[in-house]
């Protein structure tokens, strides 16, 4: 590979939930480093198409595919579309996620629980079943799961989300042990609050502030996490610099848990 060849040239990334927020930043970052990117989204087609245009205008390769990662048939169709587009996927970032409604267990419907856990954890198990055989044949494979620092808190009124992310982490750590012999690295990135649509909604609901960015000054590092902060950690994990790293969980919370005031 020449000195000017981008490091991820020749690699194919599938990023779930990549139309907006953290997933969008991850897809953009991987594409800028030379990966061909499958931009998955659920509803916001305009946002997904604008990202594909941005990547291709910059000389990169990208396609977008609508599919809910919580629905088995749509997961299968997503895998088919990704494999049709680029032949294989050697880098999967499972980022798609939804918040739960904020109800106690006693008032949470089974339907909500099933929907949230399916989006965070069950669908990606199915997706892996479709992608792993091809991934094993590549020089290197990477799976990065976007979890949440909330998993360490298990706060009340968040059982579907907490359960979804805990199951996702269990899947990742099990998979890391199974696939290491095939050269597939599996890691978890667990952000704290991030300034995205989801972060804004959480802050509005819990604190009555307009946006996550309104909390910048109160954070240990002087600002709330931005999507690019998470994307750069994902970029590191899939790079040669992290070629000896697998089965790890990196918390990206700007020191919230490390701060003297907690
Ligand atoms: N923001 C935070 O404070 C925070 C903190 C810790 C962890 N996280 C985690 O980080 C991930 C990304 O969050 P975000 O803040 O970027 O969220 P966001 O701004 O709400 O964006 C969510 C993205 O996921 C997609 N999506 C939602 N449901 C989907 C489904 N069933 N199938 C496929 N795609 C789906 C959305 O697609 P459409 O545009 O089509 O709807 C969108 O692209 C999530 O897993 C979240 O749990 C977020």
UniProtKB/TrEMBL annotation:
Keyword Oxidoreductase included in the entry's annotation: yes
Residues spanning the membrane: none
Q: Which residues form the Ketoreductase domain?
A: 11-197
> Which enzyme type, at the first EC level?
oxidoreductase
* Gene Ontology molecular functions: glucose 1-dehydrogenase [NAD(P)+] activity
Instruction: State the InterPro entries in the record.
Output: KR_dom, NAD(P)-bd_dom_sf, Sc_DH/Rdtase_CS, SDR, SDR_fam
Parts forming coiled coils: none
Q: Which UniProt keywords apply?
A: Oxidoreductase
Q: Which PROSITE patterns match?
A: ADH_SHORT
Matches recorded under SUPFAM superfamilies: NAD(P)-binding Rossmann-fold domains
- Tell whether Coiled coil is among the UniProt keywords: no
E.C. number, please?
1.1.1.47
**Family assignment from sequence similarity:** Belongs to the short-chain dehydrogenases/reductases (SDR) family.
* Name assigned to this protein: Glucose 1-dehydrogenase
Q: Which organism is the protein's source?
A: Thermobifida alba (Thermomonospora alba)
